[in-house]
Amino acid sequence: MTTIDDATYAQYVHEDLAHLIHPQYYAPDHQAPVIFDHGEGVWLTDVKGKRYIDALSSLWNVAVGHGRGELADAAAEQIRKVAFTNNYVGFSNVPAIQLATKTVSLAYDNMAALFFTNSGSESNEGAFKTARFYWNLQGRPTKTKLIARERAYHGGTLATMSMTGLPVFWKYFGPLVDGIVHTKKPDNLECDCEPNTDGECAHWLEAAILREGPDTVAAFIAEPVKGAGGVWTPAPGYFERIREICDKYEVLFIADEVITGFGRTGYMFALERWNVQPDILSIAKAITSGYIPMGAFIVSHQIADALNNVPSDARFMHAYTNSAHPTASAVGLRNLRIIEEERLVENAAAMGERLGDGFQQALGKSAHVTNLRHLGLIAGLTLVKDARTGEAYAPADGIGGKVAKHMREEGGVITRFVGDNLVFAPPLVVNAFEIDHIVEATAKAISVVTGA
Ligand SMILES: Cc1ncc(COP(=O)(O)O)c(C=O)c1O
User: Fold this and answer.
1) How many angstroms is it from 316 CA to the middle of ligand 1?
2) 162 is in which domain, residue-wise?
3) CB–CB of 451/86 below 8 Å?
4) How far is CA 351 from the centre of its chain?
5) pLDDT at residue 1, rounded to an integer
6) Whole-angstrom distance, CA of residue 226 vs CA of residue 74
């Protein structure tokens, strides 16, 4: 194990501040960063030798845990053979063919074919472009808009930033892309739907489609569980209704399973729980467990058939140099084998229940916690000043950040906060002891920071 002295650490911090613009960059965040050195399973160790449980699978992606030698071997083997080949017009490679076939076989029954990307953002951007392309092929060129949801996170490109329903991501980057709109609570809504944990219901989508005009709407995009927006779970019946509404108004349903895909919710893909199938499925993250960047969007038979039977002037001119990258594909294939052989989807379901029950027992009666929620191995909770009245902390209190800091520094657990919400998504390989450690460190931090 390599640990470094204070002078070397200070030098790294200096160079980091000088030369590295981080995602969501704000220089004060980087004055005393945790600089990671290595990892094993759910554990990460920093350059000073301190160990942490990675309770968010780093960025919701390291499904099979850290330090997997099999994935290093898969990458090395493919790089020695040939690291990269052209996959454009008339060329292909074996790992990409095999990974496409495997991934489609694991996805919903109505799925037929996929396009490989390098990230979740590219998956969603491509899914949207494909929806527009499809409607043009159907002779319906007015169907161009995309409807997304409040609190959704769909990525960092200009279009996916515009899909994202979190205004904090828009500031100073506007104007947003035209034709991308969001659901919002309709005036005078009277319905008996049980709301999702963030208050939304399926009628919000119907109202948005009617507001925009069904003939102008190409697609609706939704995460089965809103992740980066704070982990908000759907009510029973929500996605069944979403499917009906999309069918009624001929709107394609894009499921953004960049976080939920490959077992996170205790099902290989999250909508299986409700027997719902999307028209386009966006994936990334766990397809390679983050060992190498990769994503994809998968399309239904209906869309694949349309793409396979285009007129000669309608080539699908969507492309990335690294699409169907042989090395990334080899890692993805080996990674999916681990998920299946180690029965990680089943483990996610079991450990998710333990995490949910653990939080309920430790925090269910807390004076400072509300809205405990989880679906499989993705969970969230809301910190409040007074759980009886629901009174929130003032933003200036920075309560989420304080609790997360205590968890990291004192409890050795790394996770993320979104405003006053703490979110959790440990690697799918997590065991009972590690789940209990996460629960204990969370409860302790909340108790110390809130003084309860
Ligand atoms: C649901 C969802 N969609 C899309 C993205 C964007 O993926 P990427 O950061 O790989 O571009 C993310 C990233 O966290 C995500 O959580």
Assistant:
1) 24
2) 70-341
3) no
4) 19
5) 65
6) 32
CATH number at residue 58: 3.90.1150.10
Strands of 264-353, DSSP E: 280-283, 295-300
379 and 259 in a common domain: no
pTM score above 0.85 = yes
Q: Do 52 and 102 belong to one domain?
A: no
State the total domains in the chain.
2
Measure 154 CA to ligand 1 centroid, in angstroms: 5
Q: Please tell me the residue having the least CA distance from ligand 1 atom 3.
A: 154
Q: Which of 128, 154, 418 should be mutated for ligand 1, with most atoms under 8 A from CB?
A: 154
In a domain, 215, yes or no: yes
Domain boundary among 341, 370, 393: 341
Structure confidence by residue, pLDDT tens digits, 238-275: 999 999 999 999 999 999 999 999 999 999 999 999 99
Q: Using CA atoms, how far apart are residues 370 and 367, in angstroms rounded to an integer?
A: 8
**Residue 4 belongs to a domain:** no
- Which residues form the pocket of ligand 1, taking CB atoms under 6 Å from any ligand atom? 119-121, 124, 153-156, 223, 227-228, 256, 258-259, 284
Task: Give the bridge partners for 288, in sequence order.
Answer: none
